Amino acid sequence: MSESANLFVQTILTEAIRVLVPVVLTALAGYVVLLIARLRGEMGESRWAAIVQAVEFAVQAAEQSGLRDKLQQAGQEKKATAIKLAQDWLGSQGITVDVALLEGLIETAVWRFFNNGRA
Length: 119
What we know:
The protein has helices at residues 3-43, 45-64, 75-92, 99-114. By secondary structure, the protein is an all-alpha fold. It has 2 domains: 1-43; 44-119, no CATH class. Helix 2 (45-64) packs across helix 3 (75-92), helix 2 (45-64) packs across helix 4 (99-114) and helix 3 crosses helix 4 (99-114). The protein starts with a helix and ends in a 5-residue tail after the last helix.
């Protein structure tokens, strides 16, 4: 393939990715919002409040536990720490939550944590 053909293909692929990524992320966010709304309705407000509180505390604990200072500390390790903390606390309250839901809530809490609570 010639250099101009490679450049053309690269340009097409770059533009396709640039257009499709926001669409896919928006669809995924919409799905998560609907899932959370459905689960929130099924759980009741007091259980939901306990879950949200556990997630926020777990995120803050993972960020403030010294993990932030380790440059090699990967975000996935902090997320795993936050999930474990949230699961342990919720378990002590007799509340079980699907890990996928906790992951989504933790991602939201991390975003809020780093954006000073502006959601």
